[in-house]
Amino acid sequence: MLCVTVLAAYAWLIYADSLWRKEIFGIIRDWFALLLVLAAYREMGWFAPHTHSFVLERRWVVLDRLVLRNWHAHDAIESLGPVLPAILEISYSLVYALAPFALAMLYVYGARKRSERFLLVFVLGTLLSYAQFPFWPSEPPRAVFPGEDAPSIYTVFRQFNWFVLSGYGIHTSVFPSAHVSGAFASAFGMMRALPGKTCVGRFLLVMAVLIAVATVYGRYHYIVDGLAGIAVSLVALGLALMVESASPD
């Protein structure tokens, strides 16, 4: 019922914007799109299987073991003590703020009319990941392989992330990583919408890289999830460019 209400409200905003051409309707519509993405994530629980076979997880974890153990990535991250683990956990928690931050920066720089360019890439990058969840039923490594290659440095930021996931996580799939695809899509979308302010796009890109590393180090995702998430964001960027080139300016 909530989703139907949200969709109906968004449809009304589109109609009101086309009818009265008031800027306020466009502004509300911009921010409402982010709410739609959040609602879509929550409804992915509809497709969660009753049980997981863990076939995919047992294949995916092989690469994780190679990188984290044999290539000593886990030890390298913790070589400076809690500094880098804390940065990674903070970055992981901030993934939910990247899109609102990017949209706000468009307003700050007086480029609200370019918000559709940003939102097209971001929404595509996120929803394309959600759309694949039912086809790759899987659980995160922290659940399937508890304690294996887990961070040995437990920070308050990791505790916060576990709290959020325990209350709002879904059990449909972890492939591709929507955290990673959404983060990179935010960066790519901002680079498209605000090419004159490269510092903003670069900042978001750095955050996306940190988030991708954090998902693996924190055992929230497998490496293949993150790589697939990056690929999805690139597909979203390509589709957005095709739509923009086909649309009259």
Notable characteristics:
249 residues, mainly alpha, 73% helix, 0% strand
Set out the fold topology.
Layout: H1 2-20, H2 23-43, H3 55-70, H4 73-77, H5 83-93, H6 95-108, H7 115-132, H8 141-144, H9 156-168, H10 178-193, H11 198-217, H12 223-246
Helix pairs in contact: 1-2, 2-7, 5-9, 5-11, 6-7, 6-10, 6-11, 7-10, 7-12, 10-11, 10-12
Shape: globular
What average pLDDT do the residues reach?
89
Number of helices: 12
- Percent strand equals under 5%
**What kind of sheet is the major sheet?**
none
- Return Rg in Å: 19 Å
The residue ranges in which pLDDT falls below 50 over 5 or more consecutive positions are none
Beginning-to-end CA distance, first to last residue: 37 Å
SSE sequence, one letter per element = HHHHHHHHHHHH
Tally the beta strands. 0
The helical percent reads over 70%
Structural class: mainly alpha
What is the domain total for the residues? 1
